[in-house]
Amino acid sequence: MKNSNGVTLIELMIAMVIIVIVSLGFLVWETDLFRHDAAMERNNTAYAFALDVAERLQRMPDNSLIQHTTNRKCVGFEASTGNLKGCLNCTGGGPTVDISVGATGTITYVNPWNGSLLYLYDGNNCQNKTWTDAGCGPAVTISPAANSNIDHPSAVGAAYNSINPVRSYRGTTYYAVWSVAYMPCNAGTATDNRKIFITVYWLTPEPAETGVSAVQTKIANGAYAVHSVTTTVEKAIGTES
Q: Does residue 121 fall inside a structural domain?
């Protein structure tokens, strides 16, 4: 059967099928591109957040935010590779302990998720708020048991006023935690030279739960994923102007 233009019905159907297939392919490509762009934006936002926290910590005087408050840690640079490593101890043991966590880029000292517990969660109270706003800081769940190495304070207090550890941007909540180690390996706690590790992490998809227990369950079963960026800076106490 032909229409007035000489195109058969079969040809028309084939053309429509081709158009549908091409359109679906374009839609899949566009969706993947959108996801990639969104992931890159979150990663860049988290890194900018980490750098801001790092700068603020570097500018602080010698106070509790830049002293280790949990496990005493010392780090140094491995002679053979130049890689930053944990020390066997703080009284002379060499820098030979790997402090990375798999391929995530997180450091053991600031890894916020231990497989069952999350260090910091805001319970959906901090979106579009600052740390000192009512309903944000006081409602945050902080769990030191998630990582005993983290030196980020484990209770809400005035120390946070200059460093907001929870920030929201474009529907994603970002959390900052940090840890302090002394340098070099034989430094003990007498040195003023410190290495500060800062990790900023976020969850995808953005959780809707107000309770951290439900969030932890979903992370454990794969419904939510923890993403993070980590940076390190050095701090020399007593050199501030």
A: yes
